[in-house]
Amino acid sequence: MDLRKLKTLIDLVSESGISELEVNEGEDRVRIVNAGSPAPAGQVVYANPASVQAMQAAPAASAPAPAAAVEAPAAETGFVAKSPMVGTFYRAPNPESPNFVNIGDTVKVGQTLCIIEAMKLLNEIESEHAGVVKEILCENGQGVEFDQPLFIIA
């Protein structure tokens, strides 16, 4: 990768406010991390799941207080399964297939709850807790954000 491309990528990262960019071009691999101030909410882009510390710090710093108040009652009624990435939420593997889970279904740890399509990759989201699906918080085909609540399992 030539220096002009590298300089352009560095400028892109610093101007856009994204925290990290990784580019693979043939055998060349470049990872640029923006160590500057955190990006404003709405401009944070997660291409790959970040470290646990970064995931916990970014939403806490940018989440408005009313959103936290809305999520608090849901947490009291059971475990809230959240999206680990930005993408498109699908309840079934394809349109002709039945949904992975429905309200009232009993799920086990590791059971597939849904699929999130991100960058043309289908990522199966598995249950981290056993219980009964109390609520499905997303519509099929809806875009989801990182850390957005998807299911309530009690």
In short:
It contains 3 helices and 10 strands, in the order αββααββββββββ.
Question: Features of this protein?
Answer:
154 residues, alpha+beta, OB fold (Dihydrolipoamide Acetyltransferase, E2P), 4-stranded antiparallel beta sheet, 3 helices, elongated
Question: Could you explain how this protein is built, in words?
Answer:
The protein has 154 residues and is an alpha+beta fold. The chain has 2 domains: 3-37, no CATH class; 65-153, RNA polymerase II/Efflux pump adaptor protein, barrel-sandwich hybrid domain (OB fold (Dihydrolipoamide Acetyltransferase, E2P), Beta Barrel), CATH 2.40.50. The chain is built from 3 helices and 10 strands; from the N terminus they run H-E-E-H-H-E-E-E-E-E-E-E-E. A 4-stranded antiparallel sheet has the order 3-10-8-5, with helices on one face. The chain has a 4-stranded antiparallel sheet with strand order 7-6-4-9, with no helix packed on it.
